[in-house]
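Table S2 (text version). Query chain:
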Amino acid sequence: MKTKDKSRKWMWWILGSIAALQTYFVWELLAAFALFALGFSIVAAGVGSLYMLHRMWAITVDRIADSQHPIMVAVRQGVYGVEDMARRPFRRPGSAQPAN
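Corresponding structure-token output:
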């Protein structure tokens, strides 16, 4: 009877340690998942905030470009003037040829 009890005792110790290791493994997996979820949410929040900043910038630029404020009208006229000067040739036709 004593050998049978000792065998059962060791059997229960082995089963208990296996169960404890399984529980530990599950806790480790849950901790790893929690860290992954936290990291993913941080990255997603960063990407989302950058997207929102980009959209707000685009909307603001569109509103300013369509504005009829006197300063914006003057800036627009200046830009049109620079574009007009950029289209003009630097020299008159035939001015690069040497005089005979």
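Notes on Table S2: Residues 2-65 form the longest helix (64 residues). The chain has one domain: 2-87.
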